[in-house]
Design goal:
The chain has about 550 residues and is α+β, with helices and mostly antiparallel strands. The chain has helices at about 5-15, 20-25, 70-75, 80-90, 105-130, 135-140, 145-150, 165, 175-180, 240-250, 260-270, 285-290, 305-320, 340-345, 345-355, 360-370, 380-390, 400-415, 435-445, 450-455, 455-460, 475-510, 515-535; strands at about 30, 35, 50, 55-60, 65, 155-160, 180-185, 190, 195-200, 210-215, 225, 240, 255, 275, 295-300, 325-335, 360. The longest helix is centred in the C-terminal third of the chain and has 32 residues, at about 475-510. The chain is elongated and about 120 Å long. It binds zinc ion.
């Protein structure tokens, strides 16, 4: 593995979706669990090249090529391992590290840290059922935890004295310090967690890498977590994922709640696909981790102002990850409650109602835009548009981005500019237009609201109800614009011809003075007829 630490290649695999990496070179379509495309390594017309996002590998059923993101870049670009890593680091926005391979010594070190944390967990678990842990045990039982749950999640109690520092006196101080369990003080080592209800934090393989301790005497902060160590990175760890992974796969979605007690209660009351970030801050790494399984996430927040803010942040973070097959939703638990309380007081059915009625990302973003800005004023609308544009620009999938733009253009058109409902004063009375033209215009106005805006002055002179429904047409925005412009010219020409007829009558009736106007009209007609001919010929 050259000189690169497995940590870094793992990091790349975690950060980058193989569908994105392969998708840069091969057009992929999702069919069933996998994505399919035409193999870049052999010549074929029907796709036999499959990509499995969750497992992170590709396989060609035609030629047998097989590998992960790194081998894909190496083979498809014909470059060596180091260059492929560089290319992928660039795609992931990561700096190339100077990592050296993990030495046998370091691996042994990490193993010994796992060992210390495992032993510490057992000590904490034991303490919970001893007299010292009475308050902690009462607390957790009051929160609806059964003995089975306590055992499964390996919940324990860190007493007031230095349990760990005293129990590991024979161990090298540096090893113990590296686990984050103790700190060095003026008078020697002391425990980092004291008088805390202890929730172990597991890595994906089910090893304990850190702890989250809850205060029991009402002191703030409510939770303290192990500070980052070799084994534990708070920003990259999701609480409960080791227990939820299979369920996330089965349910084809994950639910993210705010707290770890909520996550545990959800997992044990009908929502095993639930996880929680550690502390309140959700990160891109958390989402990237979940997206390895699928891109269907329901965020579940408390219904208060803080929950609303957290949801807006989550929306920001999730935008770059969405694809056309993603289903991102936002649920809010109202009444100052959290999922734990809902489950306890009203049960699983009430919670399921909240989850099932979650708002889609499209609606949520539209709602916060309308909430955050005064869209009844031009200034507010301008700010709101910038806000929306900024969010939409985070979407990486080009087609999806354009669909979002059109969706919001249509909402802006229908909800912000209610001009279709309050028609402007008609400037020129024009002859009726036929049904086909009418339907075409209705279709255009709804599909391409920006065109409706652009030609509002003209369109509002026509007697059309733009709220009516019209059949779908195969018309892109360029053709649509051409349609409107040529109609506009045609209508103008009709008007000129009408005027010409009237003036001709005046001239014929003896008013020679009107003949100069007739000449002007003839010139104008010629000019617009040329324009129209040109437009139609394009
Ligand atoms: Zn092939």
């Amino acid at each position: 593995m050259a000189n690169y630490d497995r940590n870094f290649t793992d990091e790349l695999r975690a950060r980058l979706s193989i569908v994105d990496v392969v998708g840069r070179k091969v057009a992929l379509n999702k069919k069933g669990q996998n994505y399919w495309g035409c193999c870049p390594f052999h010549n074929e017309k029907t796709p036999s090249f499959s990509v499995n996002e969750e497992k992170g590998f590709y396989h060609c059923f035609g030629c047998g090529e097989h590998g992960d993101i790194i081998s894909f870049v190496m083979k498809s670009e014909n470059i060596d391992f180091v260059s492929a890593i560089k290319e992928l680091a660039n795609q992931a926005g990561l700096k190339m590290p100077d990592y050296k391979p993990k030495s046998a010594q370091q691996i042994a070190k990490e193993d010994s840290y796992f060992d210390i944390l495992e032993k510490a967990t057992k000590l904490y678990q034991k303490k919970l059922y001893e007299p010292e842990g009475k308050i902690a045990l009462e607390y957790i039982k009051n929160r609806g935890f059964t003995d089975d749950m306590i055992k499964k999640y390996r919940i324990g109690y860190a007493p007031k004295n230095n349990l760990i520092a005293n129990n590991f006196v024979n161990l090298k101080q540096d090893s113990l310090l590296s686990t984050g369990l103790v700190r060095r003080g003026e008078y020697g080592m002391y425990d980092f967690f004291r008088d805390k209800l202890m929730f172990p934090i597991f890595n994906a393989s089910g090893n304990i890498v850190a702890f989250s301790g809850r205060s029991l005497d009402g002191s703030e902060p409510k939770y303290i977590n192990t500070t980052d160590t070799i084994l534990f990175h708070k920003r990259k760890t999701i609480f409960g994922l080791n227990f939820a992974r299979d369920a996330i796969h089965r349910a084809n979605r994950s639910i993210i709640v705010e707290g770890q007690i909520d996550a545990i209660q959800m997992q044990n009351n009908g929502f095993p696909e639930t996880v929680a970030p550690l502390g309140t801050a959700l990160t891109e790494d958390h989402i990237a981790l979940l997206c390895k399984s699928n891109r269907n996430i329901i965020f579940c927040f408390d219904g208060d102002a803080a929950g609303q803010k957290a949801a807006e942040r989550a929306c920001d973070i999730v935008m770059p990850f969405i694809r056309d097959n993603s289903d991102i939703k936002f649920a809010f638990v109202s009444g100052g409650k959290d999922p734990d309380e809902i489950l306890k007081k009203s049960g699983e059915t009430a919670m399921r109602k909240i989850i099932d009625s979650a708002e889609s990302l499209v609606d949520f973003l539209w709602d916060i835009t309308n909430k955050n800005f005064l869209v009844s004023t031009p200034g507010g609308r301008s700010q709101a548009e910038k806000f929306l544009k900024d969010k939409i620009n985070k979407i990486k999938d080009v087609n999806l981005k354009s669909e979002y733009e059109q969706e919001y253009n249509s909402r802006k058109f229908n909800q912000w500019h209610k001009w279709t409902k309050q028609k402007k004063e008609i400037k020129i009375k024009l002859p009726e237009i036929d049904t086909v033209t009418k339907n075409t215009l209705i279709f255009i106005a709804n599909k391409y609201p920006f065109l409706a805006e652009r030609y509002m002055d003209f369109l509002s002179t026509l007697d059309i109800d733009f709220d009516a429904s019209a059949p779908e047409l195969n018309l892109d925005d360029v053709a649509a614009e051409k349609f409107i412009v040529s109609l506009k010219i045609q209508k103008y020409l009709e008007k000129l011809h009408k005027e010409k007829k009237e003036i001709t009558n005046i001239v014929l009736s003896g008013d020679i003075g009107a003949s100069s106007r007739l000449k002007e009209i003839d010139e104008e007609i010629q000019k617009y007829q040329d324009k129209l001919d040109l437009l139609i010929s394009i």
